[in-house]
Write a structure and sequence with these properties.
The protein is an alpha+beta fold. The chain has 2 domains: 4-225, Rossmann fold; 241-356, Nucleic acid-binding proteins (OB fold (Dihydrolipoamide Acetyltransferase, E2P)). It contains 10 helices and 17 strands. The chain has helices at 43-51, 93-103, 108-122, 137-149, 167-184, 195-201, 219-224, 229-234, 247-256, 262-266; strands spanning 4-11, 20-27, 32-36, 58-63, 66-67, 78-81, 155-159, 187-192, 204-209, 212-217, 241-244, 272-276, 290-302, 305-312, 315-322, 333-338, 344-347. Strands 6-7-8-3-9-10 form a 6-stranded mixed β-sheet, sandwiched between helices. The radius of gyration is 25 Å and the shape is elongated. 33% of the residues are buried. It binds adenosine-5'-diphosphate and magnesium ion. Adenosine-5'-diphosphate is lined by residues 13, 19, 37, 39-45. The site of magnesium ion (MG) has 3 residues, from α1.
Length: 357
């Protein structure tokens, strides 16, 4: 297990559009890091740079103590698992697993021992003589993991490895991956566009948008203390509501929130957006709550929770509540409430959060 340091990585494929923009990331040895962001934000490119499949325009890749920029991919001790498994179709699972050891001229008896030990770890002992086309998607992904593990890499990179699997299997493989990591203790970087995967898998999560690192923090920290509107909107489901400040809201806040940051009161309304998580909105009023007069568009009971889709000043907002407090709203007009302490404030122009007082 090795640490990984990315220092000011800049990458463009065409010398015009930056795919990664001055990205720095410091990964402690043995950590399980998730890199999350929308499609096209540069996640796969970042993994390719770490593994040596792509070079950088600027910046440094350090694994352990060693600068890797000029080290060949094959000499980096970094292994990669892909979404599409990339197994050799004409080889048995045993041969797929042992391929890299054979290339390294490891002795036959040792190869057998290592394949069996990895197969046992991943519970694929029974399919070693089969070919990839005759095993399930989940088994294929286990074989792909096995192939990465068998090289005993310093760093393991996983590029959306569960995206091709159905929801049920994704959940069970998620917990297996966590277990695997705690047994192997290899430094792992796991790429996904799925914020639920990011929240559940990572010790720490790097959120990237447009090639720029937005925030690198523990999962709950991203949820509780997002640094900007992108992170606030990306982490959390349903996403945070953003509402442009208006005279009625600022009036209520002046009156009810004695602790409000003066910076918020002093700015033009148009410069500020309020962020409210759907779970912070409620039908229950209180002395301190501020009120949003809305109209009801749609009620969606989704098992343990209910989503209310409301329109406030022309914009759709979402409120969620537990099913046990499910309140069938019969009227089209509805007032919903939020406690000032649950609100976030963002600078509309920069997207940055305005510190709370
Ligand atoms: P992600 O994995 O987050 O979806 P990628 O790293 O694959 O994103 O791609 C980031 C951006 O770089 C995209 O705009 C993509 O079109 C571009 N890109 C990726 N690979 C290449 C390449 N080999 N040549 C040119 N552009 C590329
Ligand atoms: Mg990708």
């Amino acid at each position: 297990m090795h640490s990984l340091e990315l220092k000011n990585i800049t990458k463009s494929y065409d010398k015009q559009n930056l795919v990664l923009d001055n990205l720095s990331l410091s990964v402690v040895a043995g950590d399980f890091i998730v890199i999350v962001g929308p499609s096209g934000c540069g996640k796969s490119t970042l993994l390719k740079i770490i593994s040596g499949l792509e070079d950088v325009n600027d910046g440094e890749i350090v694994i352990g103590e060693k600068v890797m920029n000029d080290v060949d991919a094959k000499d980096r001790k970094v292994s990669m698992v892909f979404q599409n498994y990339a197994l050799y179709p004409h080889m048995t699972i045993f041969d797929n697993l042992s391929f890299s050891l054979k290339l390294k001229k490891v002795r036959k008896t040792q190869i057998k021992d290592e394949v069996l030990s990895v197969a046992k770890l991943l519970d694929i002992q029974d399919i070693l003589e089969r070919k990839p086309k005759s095993i399930s998607g989940g088994q294929k992904q286990r074989v792909a993991l096995g192939r990465a593990i068998i090289n005993n890499p310093d760093i393991m990179l996983l590029d959306e490895p569960l995206s091709n699997l159905d929801a049920q299997l994704r959940i069970s493989l998620r917990s297996e991956l966590k277990k695997l990591h705690s047994e192997l203790k290899t430094t792992m970087l796991y790429v996904t566009h799925d914020q639920i995967e990011a929240m559940t898998l990572g010790n720490k999560v790097a959120v990237i948008d447009k090639g720029i690192l937005q925030q690198f923090d523990r999962p709950m920290e991203l949820y509780m203390n997002p640094k900007n509107m992108f992170v606030a909107g990306f982490i959390g489901s349903p996403p945070m509501n953003f509402i442009k400040m208006n005279d009625s809201l600022i009036g209520m806040l002046r009156e009810k929130d004695s602790k409000i940051n003066p910076d918020i009161l002093n700015r033009e309304n148009s410069e500020i957006s309020i962020g409210i998580r759907p779970e912070s909105l409620s039908l229950a009023n209180s002395d301190s709550a501020i009120k949003f007069d809305a109209t009801l568009e749609l009620i969606e009971p989704i098992g343990s929770e209910v989503n209310y889709h409301l329109r406030y000043l022309g914009k759709l907002i979402t409120m969620t509540s537990k099913i046990n407090s499910f309140d069938p709203i019969n009227d089209e007009s509805v007032s919903v409430f939020a406690e000032p302490s649950d609100l976030y404030y963002f600078n509309n122009v920069s997207g940055e959060i305005i510190e709370r007082s």
